[in-house]
Amino acid sequence: MTRVLVVDDQALIRSAVRDLLDAAPGIDVVGEAADGEAAVDLARRLRPDVVVCDIRMPRMDGIEATGLICGDPDLAATHVLILTTFEEDDYVVAALRAGASGFIGKGAEPDDIVHAVHAVHEGGALLSPAATRAMIERYVRGAASDPPRPSPALDVLTDREREVLRLVGRGRSNDEIAADLFISPHTAKTHVKNTMIKLGAHDRAQLVIVAYESGLVQPGR
Fold this sequence. Notes:
Elements: E1 2-7, H1 11-22, E2 27-33, H2 36-46, E3 50-53, H3 62-70, E4 79-84, H4 89-98, E5 102-105, H5 110-121, E6 126-127, H6 129-145, H7 159-169, H8 174-181, H9 185-199, H10 204-213
Parallel strand pairs: 1-2, 1-3, 3-4, 4-5, 5-6
Helix pairs in contact: 2-3, 3-4, 4-6, 7-9, 7-10, 8-9
């Protein structure tokens, strides 16, 4: 059972998301919060598997709350899914840097939101099409004015781990990475885990950011 905390400053939205998720098999909504401060407090008390969080809220926004939740060692098993109307590049990148595992718009189909909750709980990274476009466009603009340089942080990776990071950055699953590199899915999973540990990444979403910012993955290539 996936335990979920729903965070949004609008009571109507919170209620709708709660009803949607509570009706989905395998999901139990264990709490609600109306702002970032309350979200952090409840996350520490309830230890949910997934926090479904808005961005713009009073007292503390969703980006700051995400950083506090994902940066808390006691909440290492908790993942954050951003659910918002603002699928713009600055918000997408800020959320992923803060540790969010997924980013999806409130206009998404109900089944897509349910799928996103399950995906981030299982350790995946999920971006809506609009969020993906926003992030890619950001890096296209950045590459045009200031081409990325190889990051010294990648020096800690083996050649195989660099290749795995490149494939994660391109959105490949563990099974797809295994097929691309002619290795077993278990070995692919181990490489992904080791890469996350070496780079201090909270999850696959942060590996995607590293892959783009280091120039290991470039839009359109």
